Amino acid sequence: MERASYPADEAASAMRLEMRQREAGEFFMVARAVDSMDSSVLEDARASDASGTAAAAERAALDADARSIVGYVCGTLASGDVLDESTMSSHDPSGDVLAIHSVCVDERFRRRGVAASALAHYVARWIVHDDTRRENDDDDDTTTTPTKVRRVRLLCKENLIPFYERYGGFALEGASAVEHGAETWFDMVLDLA
Ligand SMILES: CC(C)(COP(=O)(O)OP(=O)(O)OC[C@H]1O[C@@H](n2cnc3c(N)ncnc32)[C@H](O)[C@@H]1OP(=O)(O)O)[C@@H](O)C(=O)NCCC(=O)NCCS
What we know:
By secondary structure, the protein is of the alpha+beta class. The chain has a single domain, classed as Gcn5-related N-acetyltransferase (GNAT) (Aminopeptidase, 3-Layer(aba) Sandwich). About 40% of the residues lie in helices and about 20% in strands. The chain has helices at about 1-5, 15-25, 35, 40-50, 55-65, 85-90, 115-125, 130-140, 160-170; strands at about 30, 70-80, 95-105, 150-155, 170-175, 185-190. α7 (about 115-125) packs across α9. Bound molecules: coenzyme A. The site of coenzyme A has 16 residues, from β3 and α7.
């Protein structure tokens, strides 16, 4: 999906995606077909199945289709506050700046709100409400404490600035010094703390 969605000089390699998933798995979120399709369509299809083995197989296939991945958002943590080539290719578990590297949707599922919904969920995941923070401060079990993300950053092209503003709440900071592919990139930032 990454290769099909980005120009060759921008797409992350399989190795880099694997690193992001392995080392920063909690920041790798996938969107499944079932999240993006109208659930009544799925229910209607299930209901119209006759009973019997063939129907069961069809239902299983339908469910498998519904579980298939149609998009993803991934990022890694950085401790510095500037996105550059090194923050894009590493994960610093002690960092509090979340750098989003990919927001990607299978082209067959585009323009249906998948990315908008995925981005909103992704960002909301890292907003720690004051009451949660207090509860966690009193909690000895550190495994329940969510990772603290103070700020979310990303680079995007000009056409997607309104998308990140509207669905992620990001603010435009300006043109980035990063050279990655042929076009100009823009720094977008979202403060959570
Ligand atoms: C960009 C991308 C993630 C959008 O996914 P999507 O699921 O089609 O987006 P949505 O349907 O949720 O659209 C949300 C909004 O963004 C707008 N939008 C979607 N794709 C756009 C594009 N290529 N250029 C400008 N605006 C776009 C939509 O019009 C919609 O705006 P609206 O609500 O005001 O009508 C998808 O086209 C993709 O994977 N592209 C290739 C990878 C890429 O470039 N990712 C961004 C990296 S910075």
